Each structure stands twice: as C-alpha cells, then as structure tokens.
Amino acid sequence: MVAPYLQCMVMVSSFHHLPPNVLPSIQRVEGGAPGIVSNNKNGTQDLGVMQINTRWIEPLRRTTGETGDIIYKRLKEDSCYNIAVAGAIMKLYLKETNGDLMQAIGNYHSHTPSLNNQYKLKIINASYQTNGSDVPLGKHLSPYQKRLLKAKQKSNRYHHRKKNQRS
C-alpha cells in the first residue's frame, strides 16, 4: 500500500533528513489509509495513512494556527499532510533521543519499553518487505535486535524451504 504515497514520503524524508525507508516501513506497519480512523482504549484515535494519534492535534493547532477540526479532517483525509506530520513527529523524536533512529521509531508508537521494542521489530520486518532484501535501518540496531533479526531470517528460510518441499 506504500506506492501511492511514495512521492510524498520521499519529499518528507528528504526535508526531515530521515532514511528513505523509515516512513514507508511505518506506513506498512500502521496499515492506515485515507479516511481510516482507529479508536484506542484510552479514548484517542489514530488517523489516516500514518495513523497519527489525535493527541497531536493540540500541538499542531498551536503551531499552525488551524482549528482542531480542520487538523482532524486533514490528518484523516489528506495523505500528504498526514505523512508530513509523521515526518515532523519522527524529527521531534530523533531530537528527543539524541539521534537514535531506532529509539525514535519505537517512540513513534509508544514510550513504554516493551511496546516500543515490539514496534521496532515490526518496523525492521516491514523494512525487509518494503526494500526486498537489505535493511537500511540495520546499522542502527542494538546487538539484541540484530540477534532477533538473524533468528527471524533463519526461521523465514526454514519455513520457505518446508513450503517448497511440499509443492
């Protein structure tokens, strides 16, 4: 589903100095689309392509001067606006983490360590699917994450061989 948004993702990534595979990988994991609203247990909602949480509406309102209703509608329906906000959030989290890309990616989802780590692994796997072979995020992985990724790759090769043997 990344392809329709790729041009905007490339522009936003370039503007915010993000590796080009980060936003497509986040979108693949989030699974959002224009008009999609996901309700969260805490009463907030995730909106649009990059599933931007409604908690960002107030900071965006203060920054842009737009009304909360307009921001909500744009996050929900305007894909490139939604992607631009995701890029700005990633830039903010990169600053917050002193440039630690993987921690910033995890923070995009949650600051809770266990949820943060689970999300990072989902992004790593999505990066493989998006890129096809190499993971440009790889140089930012901790030794633990590299071991998990290696185990996942080994498991994928095993299941692929078993599937081919049955064919």
Would you give an account of this structure?
- The chain has about 170 residues and is mainly alpha-helical.
- The protein is about 65% helix and about 5% strand.
- The protein has a 3-stranded antiparallel sheet.
- A hairpin with a 5-residue loop joins strand 1 and strand 2.
- It is globular and about 55 Å long.
Second rung of CATH, namely the architecture = Orthogonal Bundle
Secondary-structure class: mainly alpha
Mean pLDDT across all amino acids: 85
Uncertain spans, ≥5 residues at pLDDT below 50?
none
Number of strands: 3
Strand content: under 5%
- Strands ordered across the widest β-sheet: 1-2-3
Helix content: 55-70%
The number of helical runs is 8
Shape: globular
Calculate the terminal CA-CA distance, rounded to whole Å: 29 Å
Rg: 17 Å
String of helices and strands: HHEEEHHHHHH
The major beta sheet can be summarized as:
3 strands, antiparallel
CATH domain topology: Lysozyme
Number of domains: 1
Protein name: Soluble lytic murein transglycosylase or regulatory protein s ( may contain LysM/invasin domain) (MltE)
InterPro entries: Lysozyme-like_dom_sf (IPR023346), Transglycosylase_SLT_dom_1 (IPR008258)
Family: Belongs to the virb1 family.
Pfam family, one: SLT
